[in-house]
Structures are given as C-alpha cells and as structure tokens.
Amino acid sequence: MTQVRVAAVIPARMASSRFPGKPLIQVRGLPMIEHVRRRALLCGKFEAVVVATCDEEIARVVREAGGQVIMTSSNHPAATDRVAEAARKMDCTHVINIQGDEILVLPEDLERMVLAMEARPEVEYWNAVARIEEAEELSNCSIVKCAVSRGERILYCSRDFSALEGLGKDRFEPIRKVLGVLGFRKDALQQYIRLDRTPLEIAGSIDQSRVLEHDRVLQGILFQRGYIGVNTPEEIRLVQACLDQDPLQRTVLQELTLS
Q1: Are 161 and 145 in contact (CB under 8 A)?
Q2: Distance CA 206, CA 75 (A)
Q3: Cα(203)–Cα(225) distance, rounded to whole angstroms?
Q4: In this structure, which long-range contacts are made by residues 204-208, counting pairs with CB atoms below 8 Å and at least 24 apart in sequence?
Q5: I need a labelling partner for 212 at 20 to 30 A (CA). Which of 122, 146, 168, 253 fits?
Q6: Long-range pairs, 200-209, Cβ under 8 A, ≥24
Q7: 198-242 tens-digit pLDDT
C-alpha cells in the first residue's frame, strides 16, 4: 500500500483585484503570508509546506523567514492552477491548498483534514467547511455555502440560501460555509485543472461546482469555526480583533511569533 504523503501549498500573488499586495500586509508583526505558512507548520502533519508564487517580493519575504518557495507562472487563471503547477514539482501523494488569505486557520483543523485524507486516500477531492453561526450568513453572497449529506459529503454549492433564513437556528442544517482550504489527491488535482468549466461554476464563481458538475465526490471536513479570511482592507481590522479576543487565536499567535 502506498504511503500517504500530504503536502501543504499556499498560493499567493501581489496582484489581487480587490486587495493588491495583501500577502505582505503586516498583521500583528508578521506579513499575512507568514501567518498562514507558520500555522501550516504548527500542524506538524505535512511532508512539506511551500508557498507557490510568481512574485519575487513574496518569495524573498518567505525565504528570509526560512520558508520554502516554488516559483510559478504569472499567467494562471486561478489559485488552483498555481497549486497544481507547484504540486507537479513535489514528492507527495496528496495536496492541501491553503488559501493565502486564510490567516486564522487553526493548526488542529489542518491536522484533522490530514488525518481524514490518510484514512481515506482514495477520495479525490476535499474541502473544509464550518457551521453557519448567524441567519444573516445564509443570504450573504460574499460567503460561499454548501448543502452536505449526513456524512459531510458536499452536494451543492451556492452563495444564497436565503430561503432558509426564516426557519430558525435549528434549520441551519445541513448548510455549511465553504472555507478556503481544499484537499486533492495529487493526480486528481492535475485532472481538475483540465476539466471544462461548468455552468454553475461560472454563474456563481464557485470553483467547487466544477467538481460536483463533473460527477466527482467532494468530501467536506468540518472545522471548528469558519473564521474570516481577508479579501478587502476593511477585513484586516476584523482579523486583528479576532486575534486579540479569541482565546484560541491568542494562543496560536503567541506560538507563531515564537517560531
């Protein structure tokens, strides 16, 4: 039986349309990309943790901090394509794509995902999910959401589940928030980037819909919470407040600054 070797790849680029330069924005004394990379290292379950980028500015910062970098093309249409290029150069069987704006991802949640992949290495596609906490999230189109089966298999993705808003908190099930932590069997990742784009993927701008519309299994992994990612400058303030007020986040931040 082939040994499962899971690598973490963090895609990052300076030319974000909504927040240019965000990987190097300083948050509590560290560039954002370093928050994400060091959290992946704290997980302790990865064969390797690399930053995949086309920008020398990002590469220099990561290397100066002792991190690994794989330089990629600047022409990729999406982060997954950048991750796929990096993965081709790595000795691994599975890849976890940790989006570079998932600044609050918890190392223990990443460990949970690695362990699930090790237990079921035949599964091609994985995605971190979290429970809905407020009814307003159901209609917030900036949050991608999904319906899941009883075994957390992702069945359908959408930005709008507002039809459920008036049904009460107990009716949030079986809806989850889709998080920016995606897992792939390495060969399935290379297949994914060759699949045709699909109608629901295009209409909702939801990459996960491509997997579902091509009849592939997309397995959800339930994380403790769906912490905010950083897509706009305004969200930096919310992240800083979370780092200051959330006991789990305060503990992780202390570990990061010591690493």
Answers
A1: yes
A2: 20
A3: 27
A4: 204/144, 204/157, 204/158, 204/159, 206/144, 206/157, 206/158, 206/159, 206/178, 207/78, 207/80, 208/127, 208/144, 208/146, 208/154, 208/157, 208/178, 208/182
A5: 168
A6: 200/157, 204/144, 204/157, 204/158, 204/159, 206/144, 206/157, 206/158, 206/159, 206/178, 207/78, 207/80, 208/127, 208/144, 208/146, 208/154, 208/157, 208/178, 208/182, 209/157
A7: 999 999 999 999 999 999 999 999 999 999 888 888 889 999 999
Instruction: Report yes or no: 173 and 167 within 8 Å, Cβ to Cβ.
Output: no
Look up residue 153 and give its two tokens. Answer: 């298999």
Q: In Å, what is the CA distance from 28 to each residue of 10, 76, 196, 228?
A: 20, 31, 41, 16
Count of all residues that appear for the chain in the document: 259
Can you list the residues of the chain whose pLDDT is less than 50? Answer: none
Pairing of strands 30-31, 94-98: unpaired
| Largest separation between any pair of C-alpha atoms in the chain | 52
The span from the first CA to the last CA of the chain, in angstroms, equals 35
| C-alpha dihedral, 82 to 83 to 85 to 87, nearest 10° | 170
pTM, entire model: 0.94
